[in-house]
Amino acid sequence: MKKTGYAVLPGQVWIQTTMICEALSKRRILKPAFLFFIFLLTALPQGTLFSQTFNSPGEIQELALTLVNRMGDEEALAQTFMLGWTGTEASPLILDWIRLRRIGGVKVFGWNARNLETLARTIGTLQREALAGPLKIPLMVATDQEGGMVRHVKDKTSSAPGNMALGASAFPEDAYRTGFYIGRELALLGINMNFAPMVDLATDKDSVLIGTRAFGGDPAAAAILGAAFMKGQKAAGIISTAKHFPGHGATSLDSHGILPRIDADEELLWNRELVPYRLMVKEKLPAVMSGHLAFPKTPGGEEPASLSSWFLEDLLRGRLGFKGMVITDDLRMYGAIQTTGSLWLTAKKALLAGNDMILISATPALNDSVWTALLRAMKEEPAFRGRVREAARGVLAVKLEYLRGGVPLIPDPAKAALIPDPEARAFFLDLSARSVTLLKKGPLPLKPGTAGRVLLAGQYGAFFGAGRRAFPGAAAYFYEERGNSAELYRLAAAADTVIFCVGGGEDRRLLESLRPLNKRVIVLSVSVPAEGDAFDWADAAAALYSYSEESFNAGFSAILGRFEPEGKIP
Q1: Residues 249-266, buried b or exposed e (16+ Cβ, 10 A)?
Q2: All structural domains of the chain
Q3: Active site residue 256
Q4: I want to staple 501 with a disulfide (CB 3.0 to 4.6 A). Which of 147, 212, 276, 458 is the partner?
Q5: Exactly one of 144, 174, 204, 329 is catalytic; which is it?
């Protein structure tokens, strides 16, 4: 073992030493036992195993190994757990998992983040419990804050227009600044890990799950934008997690409810889905989220990639050369557990396959079968025990690189008042304008004086706010989930211009009901645009890619002719 300024004493050696001393003591051979113990202490340089903590100096990989060697099996296993919790305050159960088990991380969901000051205070409570442990190892605190469709921490946080808007603007600097501004707001709350960027490709246009969450369909463009987003987050102190490896974009199925099977062989994956990972790994990507997706034409076969050693060890770590940590998508998703039948077996297979951390969206009971079965397997199966300890070392290495001197571990709740970041909000408005893509120009620009009677139709409050600022006195037809086409038709018949916001299939059905009317129809699309789409008969159409307030403001500004849209379909 390489010599360093501090000693490394493997856990097994310490256990054996203790056993020897106990045996000698029982035989009343006190002097030899004492001398043996003194020999160990004097043989170790100052700053030994007995004092090494997360904050000790040293090379990252060696210190990570030292910390793992100080851990018993339970503490090493706990580092591989990332759990969600219920409510906005720290639940007693999640506190027990931190205090008694010393788990490695927690995940912030939307139900935890209804108030930013409360969230910051809660994260501080969780981190204080973690830092009170003997090794002083902090938690990874993660969330999904992609921008666009997926933004788990809402309240007053800035609303970025999302990945497809970045693809439409096509400027890497926009992706960098998006990652930076998202990361800077998360850092104020004590969140140090983001499950972003999402680098799945927009290959299947019918995919509701992916949609505008993708940068676009071009692998090279997605790679460049993903790498820029990652570097922006790093500048803000955030651990980026690229997802969903190896790629969720070529299916319209949702792995929350089924195991998607994607018709792509290894060569196609390498030249399409894996292109973003290939670039980002070279740029030192810290973390990857494994997806619950099967690729039957690859050596991974029918097994989910998240449970496949071929995907995680042979392909990701071997062929791509990835050095960071791998975390599963939520193991409670049906795409993960349908092949094993139980959560604990899924968790075991995930760790054996090469994941370093398992994500479970709920908080299991303290002695739940997932924990007890995995701990039993560690005691009975040396290979599994070794894999878990290796996984814990991988988690610690990323923590040591990012969580020492980066994002404040204990956030100041008062700083939640700095959100939204005014600089970020101004930037996202500019980005929204750059991304607006004109699909059909028609009568645009259209001024209030020539639009006649205007009807706004859609599902989003921000759409109506921006629309009425642009066209004061406009009538409105607001609906939730399913609209009434007869009512819409009646209101549209009394208007001269209908401005319709299109998102999903229900919006398209309602829009189609207006086709027989001889009215001016302008479409603002917040979904994935496609030439020759269902609204190609409309007089004018523009793609916004997002339902944020900034995107709607930009869309109506384009209708009014305040700028000429230059976005391109990504």
Answers
A1: bbbebbbeeebbebebeb
A2: 1-51 (no CATH), 81-422 (3.20.20.300), 436-560 (3.40.50.1700)
A3: yes
A4: 458
A5: 329
